[in-house]
Write a structure and sequence with these properties.
There is one protein chain. The protein is of the alpha/beta class. It folds into 4 domains: about 140 residues, Rossmann fold; about 100 residues, Beta-Lactamase (2-Layer Sandwich); about 140 residues, Reverse transcriptase/Diguanylate cyclase domain (Alpha-Beta Plaits, 2-Layer Sandwich), CATH 3.30.70; about 240 residues, EAL domain (TIM Barrel, Alpha-Beta Barrel). Helix content is about 45%, strand content about 25%. The chain contains 25 helices and 28 strands. Strands 19, 20, 21, 22, 23, 24, 25, 26, 27 and 28 form a 10-stranded mixed β-sheet that branches. A hairpin with a 2-residue loop joins strand 8 and strand 9. Helix 3 packs parallel to helix 4 and helix 16 packs parallel to helix 19. About 30% of the residues are buried. The mean pLDDT is about 85.
């Protein structure tokens, strides 16, 4: 007979016969950790007031307060404690009264230990079930409170009449705050079409879930709505609506997106705005000029990076001043800021420009730029020279061609070079052009794909996968890693398309992998409004299974921009990881400013973990992360010894060739 359930019970045993009480209490203590003996009902009530009691075993006849009166008192206190009464055969009248009190169990005297244990075991099962139900009830109440706290709960009729509003969060929800706005019917703020969709879904006993726009007092709100039947028999009578206000999140997103199109040092539109603009235009109708400051790196080394930003701002102001004067109805100019010290001037002519026109425009611009010194500060006046690279009417990547022209101009010590006039120079860039062709073919043939490498727990179970970009080179029958193509793609206008392709295909594979996936993003990606909007769309569907990995070194480029991105992604439910932590300079400020869920220790440290210094360093990182409740992943685990060492240090998850190389999705089917 199993007595496991009895072991955790807290039992109150009430018996006025001291010999019987002591004997049975000793026996019960072998079965249960907590036995409270009492000599009468009054003493038992005092114990009940001070202790948590699961089961009462009581005699009927006792002085002061008998077993029946004790049972009645317990029931009056609504304690819901099961009661087992021990009774003699001659106590029939007492027994009838006990039955009327709905006593849970009876056992006759003299007590048979086996029968007693059987009765207690039956009651223990009931008690255990009740405890489990109570636990579930409490969990459900906590869940309900959590939902109410972060959402607004409405109960509506089939006609849309608002029957009740949850009070926990209604003050936060201005659109239904009864102190500010009087709304009695949901149809006052939702379109007829959307309300009809809700009714159709709920009346079919389905759950409706969608982001909708609500209009309250001429103000627009974006709200995530979940609707389901609340009361239904033959027909649905009332409907529950759970509303989560996304307005602030979307507003924050819009502000971040807007800022990502602006260069912070000059307030000019940046390269992402440029890419967007080029895609809107026909490259056969425009000219693009790269404006590069000569020896800018030397200036920043001499005067510092803050002065460098000031130089760029003053240069941008001078360029704007010149083009504002030169601008005409038939010749428009737009100025953009690229990375580092490069500017881009888009020239938009109404009619195609002749070579002489282009030479005249560029010569005039460069002469006016270099005509006078740049007054940076009161005692700092600089003579700055410039190199231009120009491309126009290009069918290919006009930005890349202009950058090539700028490099050729600098190498040949010319003020500017027009790419269209140096076609022979392509031999110098043959390798790049060949790679460009491979990349273009990969896009055309749908050969840009993710590979997946498993991330393992200490028991060697797969817990998630990292998605890694690959290009299938059909010409040479090879699989190219980012080492061979990433920089080339980053320099082209196709980088956003490349990133979105990898993310999209990786997410499509989750139905096969049945695990969370990690996606690598560069600083280029998290600064790109197009990528952020794309991620927002995907996170609404896949948020619970996505971890975004950011390269540690890349985050240092602009920590404020990184913080904004991470907070926005967390708002949508993604997890954040820092990749390659410990590679080069490790900035522990991340732990205080970024909402990090996990870090991946760089392979350079993992390879040295079996050496004393490497061991101590990895141990320090792991301990630090554990105190902050941040998960730790070790990359580049290549053998059993390294795996065992990392396990002993408390690393949470592991990744490397020791477990598996990255594989295409076909290998997981």
């Amino acid at each position: 007979m199993s007595t496991t359930l009895i072991n955790d019970l807290s039992i109150l045993y009430v018996e006025d016969d001291a010999t019987v009480r002591e004997s049975l209490s000793s026996t019960l203590k072998l079965l249960s950790k907590k036995i409270y003996p009492a000599s009468d009902g009054l003493q038992a009530l005092e114990i009940i007031k001070n202790q948590t009691i699961d089961l009462v075993i009581t005699d009927i006849k006792m002085p002061k307060l008998d077993g029946l009166e004790l049972s009645k008192k317990i029931q009056e206190l609504n304690l819901n404690i099961p009661i087992l009464i021990t009774t003699a055969h001659d106590e029939i009248d007492y027994l009838h009264k006990a039955i009327e009190l709905n006593i849970d169990a009876f056992i006759t005297k003299p007590l048979n230990i086996t029968s007693l244990i059987q009765s207690i075991t039956k009651l223990a099962k009931i008690i255990s079930t009740k405890k489990e139900l109570e636990k579930k009830k409490q969990q459900l109440e906590q869940f309900k409170k959590a939902v109410n706290f972060s959402n607004l709960i409405l109960d509506i009729s089939q006609e849309g009449e608002i029957l009740s509003i949850s009070t926990e969060n209604s003050i936060e929800f201005d659109l239904f705050n009864p102190d500010k706005i009087k709304i009695t019917n949901i149809k006052e703020c939702i379109s007829d079409e959307n309300f009809l969709h809700i009714l159709e879904s709920v009346n079919d006993l389905n759950i409706f879930h969608k982001n909708l726009s609500l209009k309250i007092n001429e103000e627009q709100y974006t709200v995530n709505i979940t609707a389901f039947a609340n009361e239904y028999g033959d027909d649905v009578k009332t409907i529950n609506l759970i509303l989560k206000d996304l307005t602030k999140t979307l507003k924050k997103k819009d502000q971040i997106i807007e800022s990502l199109y602006i260069d912070q040092s000059t307030n000019l539109k940046n390269k992402f705005a440029l890419y967007k603009r080029i895609n809107e235009l026909s490259t056969s109708d425009l000219m693009l000029c790269i404006i590069d400051l000569d020896d800018f790196r030397k200036l920043t080394k001499l005067y510092g990076y803050k002065m460098g930003d000031k130089i760029l701002k003053i240069v941008s102001q001078k360029i704007l001043k010149i083009i504002n004067v030169e601008q005409k109805e038939e010749l428009l100019f737009e100025l953009y800021k690229l990375e580092s010290d490069k500017f881009v001037l888009l020239v938009l002519p109404k009619s195609p420009l002749e070579d002489d026109d282009i030479n005249a425009i560029m010569s005039n611009l460069i002469n006016k730029l270099e005509d006078n010194s740049f007054e940076i500060e009161e005692n700092v006046s600089l003579d700055i020279s410039f190199t231009f690279g120009i491309a126009y009417n290009e069918e290919e990547d006009i930005l890349t061609e202009a950058l090539i022209a700028k490099d050729v101009a600098r190498e040949s010590k010319k003020d500017f070079v027009i790419y269209n006039k140096i076609k022979g120079i392509k031999n110098i860039f043959a390798r790049n052009l060949q790679l460009q062709k491979k990349i273009k073919n990969a896009f055309d043939e749908d050969k840009i794909i993710p590979y997946f490498q498993p991330i393992i727990d200490k028991n060697k179970n797969v817990v998630k996968y990292e998605a890694l970009a690959r290009i299938i080179d059909t010409e040479d029958n090879k699989v190219l890693t980012p080492f061979f193509f990433l920089e080339q793609i980053k320099a082209s206008k196709n980088y956003s398309k490349f990133t979105k392709t990898i993310i999209e295909k990786s997410l499509q594979c989750t139905s096969i992998l049945q695990k969370e996936i990690s996606i690598n993003l560069s600083f280029e990606d998290i600064s790109n409004p197009e990528i952020i909007l794309f991620l927002e769309e995907k996170l609404l569907k896949y948020s619970s299974i996505i971890t975004i990995e950011l390269l540690e070194s890349e985050g240092l480029k602009d920590i404020e921009k990184t913080i904004n991105f991470c907070n926005l992604m967390k708002d949508y439910g993604a997890k954040i990881a820092i990749d390659d932590f410990g590679a080069g300079y490790s900035n522990f400020e991340y732990f205080f400013t970024l909402p990090i869920d996990k870090i991946k220790i760089d392979g350079s440290l993992i390879k040295k973990v079996n050496e004393y210094k490497g061991y101590v360093l990895v141990e320090a990182i792991v301990n630090f992360c554990k105190k902050l409740d941040i998960k730790v992943v070790a990359e580049f685990v290549e053998d059993e010894k390294t795996f065992e060492t990392l396990k002993s240090l408390g690393v949470d998850w592991f990744q490397g060739y020791y477990f598996s190389k990255p594989k295409p999705i076909e290998d997981f089917k």
